[in-house]
């Protein structure tokens, strides 16, 4: 277990109670080397006793890589709908506060308190998203200007993003967000919500997107957006086609570090997207399969 996660365990447990963040039984990990296995924790959401608890998976490379909010561990006295909403909100909280190299769990718990105060947890959010024009990435926030004035995306429930590990090369950083989607309008609205609510994403040099959706009656939809990085969106879409992924979208953000990567940048974009799909459970990790076969 890294010194950073130990500090966060101590801070959370000293402020919110001694059982707020505890290692999961058989959680593995425990080392601080990047090759060590990840460590599982149980986060008992502070506050109301009716709140649920969540299973977190913290990689050995944390805080360079984000923690994975894996699942609901226990609903406690909360309803299943409330527990699902708490899981979704905490995933959004982690996605909002995470910056590579900076511990984020304590800040994510604080952010969760803000989100929970702003949103009734017994309301299903899926139908709340208004239609949005397809396309539109947002390097520097350009797409935000296209959002109709009457649509306040910041007031809508956050999309259920799953984050990839960040990949950094030549001072450029790449980070993918993956979410399930059921319509092109929902996918476009998720992009708009991300740009409207995440300042760091708005400051990215490029936010490249792609999605594939199966519709009713055998119809299908797919689209992509380069956001100024020529052919990057179409390469993401080709990756999804090759992986046979449906009803999912990906947004890959790049923060340019001042040194050109040449064609290598496309490999990094796809590598980041694939890691996001693996972490979101859309594809098996080949490395994990090899480990299982070797046992």
Automatic annotation (TrEMBL):
GO terms for cellular component: cytoplasm. SUPFAM superfamilies: Ribosomal protein S5 domain 2-like, UBC-like. Keywords: Cytoplasm, Repressor, Stress response, Translation regulation. Gene3D superfamilies: Impact, N-terminal domain, Ubiquitin Conjugating Enzyme. It is found in: Cytoplasm. Residues 7-119 form the RWD domain. It comes from the Eukaryota. The keyword Repressor applies. InterPro entries: Impact, Impact_N, Impact_N_sf, Ribosomal_Su5_D2-typ_SF, RWD_dom, UBQ-conjugating_enzyme/RWD, UPF0029_Impact_CS. GO terms for biological process: GCN2-mediated signaling; regulation of translational initiation. Residues 16-37 are annotated as: Disordered. Belongs to the IMPACT family. PANTHER family: IMPACT-RELATED, PROTEIN IMPACT. This is RWD domain-containing protein.
């Amino acid at each position: 277990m890294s010194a950073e996660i130990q500090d966060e365990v101590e801070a959370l447990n000293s402020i919110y109670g001694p059982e707020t963040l505890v290692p999961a039984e058989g959680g593995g990990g425990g080392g601080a080397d990047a090759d060590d296995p990840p460590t599982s924790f149980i986060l008992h959401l502070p506050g109301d006793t009716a709140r649920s608890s969540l299973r977190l998976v913290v990689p050995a490379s944390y805080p360079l890589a984000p923690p994975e909010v894996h699942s609901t561990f226990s609903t406690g006295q909360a309803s299943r709908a409330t527990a699902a909403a708490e899981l979704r909100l905490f995933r959004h909280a982690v996605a909002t506060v995470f910056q590579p190299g900076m511990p984020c769990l304590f800040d994510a718990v604080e952010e969760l308190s803000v989100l929970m105060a702003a949103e009734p947890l017994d309301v299903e959010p899926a139908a709340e998203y208004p239609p949005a024009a397809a396309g539109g990435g947002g390097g520097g926030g350009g797409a935000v200007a296209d959002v109709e004035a009457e649509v306040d995306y910041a007031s809508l429930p956050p999309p259920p993003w799953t984050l990839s590990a960040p990949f950094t090369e030549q001072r450029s950083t790449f980070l993918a967000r993956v979410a399930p989607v059921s319509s092109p309008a929902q996918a476009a609205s998720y992009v708009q919500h991300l740009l409207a609510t995440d300042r760091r994403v708005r400051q990215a040099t490029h936010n490249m997107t792609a999605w594939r959706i199966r519709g009713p009656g055998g119809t299908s939809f797919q689209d992509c957006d380069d956001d100024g990085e020529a052919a990057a969106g179409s390469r993401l879409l080709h990756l999804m086609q090759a992986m046979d992924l449906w009803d999912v979208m990906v947004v890959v953000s790049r923060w340019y570090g001042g040194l050109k990567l040449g064609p290598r940048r496309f490999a990094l974009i796809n590598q980041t997207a694939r890691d996001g799909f693996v972490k979101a459970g859309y594809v098996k990790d080949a490395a994990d399969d090899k480990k299982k076969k070797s046992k």
